Amino acid sequence: AIRAEVNKLERLYGVDANTLDLLQTLPARALRLLREAAQAKLFGDDLTLFQRLAAASVLLPLALIAMMAEKIFGPVLGARVAGEMNYKRAVDLSGRLPIPFLADISLQLDPKRAREIIQNLPPERIRDVAVELLRRHEFITMGRFVDYLTEAAIRKSMEAFTNPADLLHAGFFIENKAQLNNLIRMLTDERLRGVIIAAQDPEQNLWSEAVALMEHVDDSLKRKLGDLAAEQDESALAGLCRTAYEQGLWDSVLPVVACMSEPSHRRLLRIPALSDRARMQGILESADDNGLWSSFLPLIRLMSPEQLTLIADVATRLPAGALENILRAAQAANLWDSIL
Fold it and tell me: What is the model's pTM?
């Protein structure tokens, strides 16, 4: 979440990637508030001027406005004026502009100010712009617009995603994570398997993006996605565990694991990484720090004697407060058999 917000700020200010890495130490919520305040400032300046230009455009024929927008105003000024236009006229105007120029405008457009325009554009037109944005790898822009699209436009735009990895890239930048449930349910199991396979590609290393999707969906989708990951060969689950360990994502992964089916749990526990002391310590510490013992304890009854010995040894070295938390979780969820 922090990385996504920093990337969005870099795009907003038009600076190179990694320029704002110093902001990685701030909480995601603080970064989002900063971005929203900066965006309001940038798009609020000289508002009267753009409103006057939008009003004056009513006096000119659409063909002339389209020519002026593309040849004279350019995408930055065009986006600012479009945000103040009557949405019906703006929609009519969009039909006269080439797709590459509409993509240029979308990079500069504040979707909040253009909500009515976006929601009234033909779904086919939005899909065509999505194809162009994907060609340019403009995933941040695509993620910003999802909240303002109609369901019909979203379904049409999903046709543009022929590469499963692109779904992970764009989903990473969606503003309202509640949208993810609807988006993922639009995908067939075959396409979801493609997403999981893309996540484990060692050249792209997209497990963190996949985890960012999994952690925000409801439990039924957590189960489906987790089980689809477990269907792959052992390297898939090993990659997920490695990413969780290296990037400190156990707090996001454990709730997904808890929702998986028992056969998936058994496949997961066969991974050698889960017999490693450092990794197991990271899991237990994350379970305690994030109140996730109820997600972890049910796995214990499926573990090998060697894993149980390791966990017992690691657990006895946790602070006394952690042991009390384990007992409380066992009491709340009736998991005494796992404790014993």
Answer: 0.82
